[in-house]
Amino acid sequence: MLIYVFLCAIFRLSSYTGGIAMYDYHIHSRFSPDSTSRLSAIASYALDSGLRGICITDHLEFDECYRPDHVLDIDAYAKRIAALRREYPSGPAIGFGIEIGLKDKASFSRARAHIKGYEDSLDFVIGSVHYTSEGDAYSADFFKNRTRIESYSAYLECAVSRCLSSSDYDVLGHFDYPAKCAPYTNRAMRYSDNPWAFDRIFKHLIDNGIGLEINTSVYPTQKEMLWGKDILKRFVALGGEFVTLGSDAHIVSKVGWRSKDALLLAQAAGVPYLATFHKRRPTMHRLTGI
Ligand SMILES: [Zn+2]
Ligand SMILES: [Zn+2]
User: Fold this and answer.
1) Which residues hold their Cβ within 5 A of ligand 1, which is an ion?
2) CATH code at 274?
3) Residue 200 in domain
4) Ligand 2 centroid vs 31 CA: distance in angstroms?
């Protein structure tokens, strides 16, 4: 059994890289309301999978949350991540991150106030749009009586003002969030679903040095082809320089999920860099021309 685990780890490591180390910069733990994953199990799985670095990005959401009673215990969370780093001194590198739900300026200010005192130790901030004026784009109601393009376009339109409500985040998380639960046979999001919204969002990200995340949680199986090449190409054409990769794992076995495929997608779209973060400062790993 041990030999099997060892061979799996070696295989995953060698099949991943092609010269580029693999990272997962979007993982949830039991500090989020929708995960029970223990941090030690996440780190151990990442180590066995050959990941060079991970970033835990638990939810910090105000005003809109399916569990309004839940507030991130930032003190306990920070303390646990510091302890985890001591438990894994030889890696993987473990980032202290958060995922902030984007709504408006007031909501973002509440999130900022909540992490007061931890600004200097925080490594990475994901800004994500989960809700629209019609509710959570994760719920079945959001898609009722609408075609794929109608629901995706409505989400993107609503995402514009939310993305523009702050520039204090490092990447935009899961730009194709409604695809996670969409009931359509072909769930792929396309640039043509709402070019105006994509361009408006991308301009804001690029002007403020914010990157785009490729989130692999929208692919529940290994078989599905990754979409988004047209979207990433547009991001690059407008001046976008980097992406991060995130599994958005809420269970341990999804850590690192389809990271290699996401990396290949970024390369195929001509994205220049994969970014990792330390204390909110990016390190750029070249993806093209290598
Ligand atoms: Zn999210
Ligand atoms: Zn998430």
Assistant:
1) 128
2) 3.20.20.140
3) yes
4) 12
- Strand pairing partners for 187? none
> Which ligand has the shortest distance to the CA of 176?
1
Supply the range of the domain harboring residue 91: 57-244+261-286
Question: Is residue 208 domain-resident?
Answer: yes
What spacing in Å lies between the alpha carbon of 27 and ligand 1's midpoint?
10
Distance CA 25, CA 90 (A): 18
CA–CA distance, 40 with 87 (Å, rounded to integer): 8
CA of 102 to the centre of ligand 1 (A): 10
- Per-position pLDDT tens, the chain of length 290: 344 334 434 333 333 345 788 999 999 999 999 899 999 999 999 999 999 999 999 999 877 766 666 789 999 999 999 999 999 999 899 999 999 999 999 999 999 999 999 999 999 999 999 999 888 888 899 999 999 999 999 999 999 999 999 999 999 999 999 999 999 999 999 999 999 999 999 999 999 999 999 999 999 999 999 999 999 999 999 999 999 999 999 999 999 999 999 999 999 999 999 999 999 999 999 998 76
Task: Specify the DSSP element, H or E, that contains 101.
Answer: strand 93-101
In a domain, 19, yes or no: no
How far is it, in rounded angstroms, from Cα 89 to Cα 179? 38
Could you tell me the sign of the dihedral formed by the alpha carbons of 80, 82, 88, 91, in that order? positive
CA distances from residue 130 to 7, 57, 169, 177, 255 in whole angstroms, order as listed: 39, 15, 15, 7, 21
C-alpha 198 to ligand 2 mean position (Å): 21
Distance 144 CA to ligand 2 centre (A): 24
Closest ligand (CA of 58): 2
Q: Is 240 within a domain?
A: yes
Q: Provide the number of structural domains found in the chain.
A: 1
For residue 217, the one-letter residue type is: S
- Ligand (nearest to CA of 136): 1
